[in-house]
Amino acid sequence: MHERVADRRLWTWVVLLGLTGQLAWTVENMYLNLFVYNTITDSPTVLATLVATSAVAATVATLLAGAASDRIGRRREFIAVGYVLWGLCTAGFGLVSVDAAASLLPMLDAVTVAVIAIVVLDCVMSILGSTANDAAFNAWVTDSTDPGNRGRVDGVLATLPLLAMLLVFGALDPLTRGGQWMLFFTIIGGATAVVGVIAWFGLREPRRPRPSGSYLSSVIHGLRPSTVRDNPQLYLALLAWAILGMSTQVFLPYLIIYVQRYLDIDGYAIVLASVLLGAAVISVIGGRVLDRIGPSRGVLPVAVVYVIGLLLMFPARSMLAVIGAGIVMMAGFMLGVAAISATVRNLTPPERAGQVQGLRMMFAVLVPMVIGPFLGAAVIAGADETFVDLGVVKQVPTPWIFPTAAAVVVLIAIPVVLLRKAGGAHTLAQESLETSL
Asked: What is the pTM for the complete model shown?
């Protein structure tokens, strides 16, 4: 009975904190780009810069906060206080506009001022969100799970970004279409802050061993060459995550704009809802399969599914074709994230779960978000497709972002094959040692 209660408590917090965090990240990762595109500038370089700078801020914050939570031996305070501040900062996006910039600093170019304000606020928001979610919450998940259930947990966690997108599209997209951006940001920010308050009073956490040495040594431990040599499987899994993430960032920042402006699908919310629900169901079911076969063995098969989906997106133009291709593409992506994430958790030293979240951010967020969006922007600029909006000529994403993403993710085979070889060598060494003993 105690185990069943503990299991229910685990799933409650995984879903509540995970989904709320992804609602806030949906605003940052997708709707913030749309907000800037619609109200400030259509420059793909500005959008790519926004993504890249926030990724740098998020990575540094996760490295510092993850190591701090390891040394303190607590995650709850980082999660609860971080979610409250994260929510308040998210609500602040609604205060930024070209008109506000022009009234505050009339001697400067209003668009430039608004862009700078958005970039700075996005970096602050990313620091708070990464401290609370990427560093503390993800470390708490590692602390609270084991190799027997991590495939299922990460399978569910992988669906939450898309479920968050679905909730935002279904409930709040009319606000963005009507230009009510301040109300949109306030609702998401307020919900995030409320969940932070709930976590302060209700979240419980298991005790874990603390790392030895100074705080600075904890921060840089994962960056040392000796650590890489001692944990080759962990870093190969992280490299595979970087390649998968880089591929996704080629198209994801521009996906809503592509569906709206290039495909010109009026019912794009229906398309996205169908894709997200279908892919989420497949991911939840696939998470159970990953637990049975071992998550590291599932990376290549699901990567193949992801590539097929990307290639199907290239010719897709009708609503049904986009839905079918999108389900294949996003299901492959989510299962890829679940498989790699569970593999990384299984390879994480128990006393360094927080520190590994910093490494995860470097490989899964920083590298992909610095390289991927600029690669996508280069493809969009090279295609030079435009449309006229209220007399203004704007660039629009083209289908070439999808085969470009497919070409990138093919490289994942290299670290995955090396990971299997390293795992086999490690197993042989263990068997040899046991035999000699």
From this structure: 0.74
